UniProtKB/TrEMBL annotation, chains A, B:
Annotated family: Belongs to the serine/threonine dehydratase family.
Protein name, per record: Tryptophan synthase beta chain-like PALP domain-containing protein
Species of the source: Lipomyces starkeyi NRRL Y-11557
GO MF term list: ATP binding; D-serine ammonia-lyase activity; L-serine ammonia-lyase activity; magnesium ion binding; pyridoxal phosphate binding; serine racemase activity; threonine racemase activity
Pfam family membership, one: PALP
Any one biological process term the GO annotation gives: amino acid metabolic process
Key words, A-Z: Lyase, Magnesium, Pyridoxal phosphate
Length: 339, 339
């Protein structure tokens, strides 16, 4: 990942950088709606005197079903066309794979995607349907990296990492730019805070940059079973290891090297939630909002409804980022079954 | 239902009447989003030379989970406050019951709801949670009407029927007013046609009035298993009987007496679809759009994707009304199972 330490790019890691990214990708991604829901806001308010209104940014409706297309599109836009001649490559079993395939197709560029052979069938089919050239690898990180490096050397394709890269971070930050302006224009409110899920930290770091200087406070939401960001914030050291048992499969990655210091600097606090809280939030969203979010995307709402948030969080107008909606429909019923 | 034949009200059954209704209810109902979806529009286009773009009006996100709140709110707004003193009453096992409970609560009026004792538990709970006073009746229409009439006589509550009433029709028509203006303002397109589901015909008649004189062509979508509207249009006689076996439970009612002549006059054609087509459309919406629609609400999309529509329908910018999203989550998995 040489690109990710490119000093020229790194200087751009500011709110202005997010705005420039937005100018580049705006016409290529969907401006997803911001929804509200009275009954969920009432639950979030509870017995508080100050009412809480939640504003849900629906990146589950984004192209490819997740925010990832923003970063992928931005990364491709920032490369010169001769740098794209040999195609682009990544390894991912999830939303970044689909996003890169879509973004590359839109630019007429070949996308090589390395996926673990045990990836879920719908994700493989989706990546294929977007024109991605899939190579399967073994399931572990070293196996995936080995296959990726082999193809990269053979094809000279450009590596586009999923989160640990300035252009990816700036692209993902456009989620909050839109959420802030839509909340203002469509509802007449200024956000007091936003809760963003954290896995590798591309979305969180980007949103933190986008919020800087605006007065919007940024909080992170993480599964307790994959709490590397929370631990890292406490110790002051990036935690490179993370367990992979949480149902929130998009958040099973450690926070990236570039992402961590941004998060340390600009994110106020990381809240963790249990598996039960995540699934209850996912069910509530289906039931009351009539929309499908993947478990990872339900984590910020789970935070907003938790007792810890009521105690240490913020009241008022709270942005909730629904990061994606890619969930195996045949598994939904099992996931949301009432305990 | 004496009110529904009130000659003074009937004179209002015009596009202007829908606009006046909108002025009354606008601040009391949700302006639901209009979504698009590239992959579904691509499927709808098929091998046609003229591309079709579908614009989905998401009344599944409406208060109470369906468009019904529009008509109920309008009906209450049109009554003088002394006419509301004794409360309002209706019989319904579905979305109208919840809508009337919500609208009445907002006005501080008591709502009596007669529900068949075999109603689905989530619907009973929802109606109760909105403050509706429920009385159970036997499941047949005469039993329900008997109980309703008994309570009405005792309480002197005002009957608010679910669809066969001018104020209800005009209120429901506001769905299309919004869809047309949102498609223009947010996407820069004028609708060529709209496909609306038909059960009792409140929504369809209202939309037909709203479209009149605008150049937007109005089509109806109906389950083949409950095709009373389609048959009525062919014979020129309202068909008072309808089978109740379709999965689209909101469309198991015959078209109303006031509704039928409006539909005859302004609706171009009724398309019917099979149960399989309805469920495939519902699955597609969950999978690609990440939103929950109830089977009744999937019927217009099922039409847009059918061979009959490709042959006899309209290409271009087509509005699709997602009428509601109230479906038992525990049953979703069974409903959408791939055949």
């Amino acid at each position: 990942m040489i690109e990710s330490r490119d000093p020229e790019s790194v200087t751009d890691l500011t709110r202005q950088g997010v705005e420039s990214a937005y100018a580049l990708i705006k016409s290529k991604v969907k401006k997803t709606p911001v929804l509200t829901n009275e009954s969920i806001s009432t639950i979030a308010t509870g017995s508080d005197e100050v009412p809480t209104t939640l504003f849900f940014k629906c990146e589950n409706f984004q192209k490819g079903g997740a925010f990832k297309i923003r970063g992928a599109t931005h990364a491709l836009e920032k490369l010169r066309s001769e740098e794209l001649d040999n195609g682009v490559i990544t390894h991912s079993s999830g939303n970044h794979a689909q996003a890169l395939a879509i973004a590359a197709k839109a630019k007429g560029v070949r996308a090589y995607i390395v996926m673990p052979s045990n990836s879920a069938r719908p994700k493989i089919e989706a990546t294929q349907s977007y024109g991605g050239h899939i190579t399967f690898s073994g399931p572990t990180a070293p196996e995936r990296e080995y296959v990726t490096e082999t193809i990269r050397k053979k094809t000279n394709a450009r590596l586009i990492p999923p989160y640990d890269h300035p252009h990816i971070i700036l692209g993902q930050g456009t989620v909050l730019l839109e959420l802030m302006s839509q909340t203002q224009e469509e509802y007449g409110h200024k956000l007091d805070a936003v809760i963003v899920p954290v896995g590798g930290g591309g979305l969180l770091a980007g949103c933190a940059l986008a919020a800087h200087g605006t007065g919007v406070r940024v909080f992170a939401a993480e599964p307790a079973l994959a709490d590397d960001c929370s631990r890292g914030m406490e110790t002051g050291q990036r935690e490179p290891n993370v367990a992979t048992t949480t149902v929130a499969d998009g958040l099973r990655t450690p926070v990236g090297v570039i992402n961590f210091p941004i998060i340390q600097k600009y994110v106020e606090k990381v809240f963790t939630v249990s598996e039960e809280e995540i699934l209850a939030a996912m069910r509530l969203v289906l039931e009351r909002m009539k929309i499908v979010v993947e478990p990872s995307a339900a984590v910020p709402l789970a935070v907003a409804l938790s007792d810890r948030w009521k105690k240490d969080g913020v009241k008022g107008n709270i942005g909730i980022v629904f990061s994606g909606g890619n969930v195996d429909l045949d598994k939904i019923a099992d996931l949301i079954k009432k305990p």
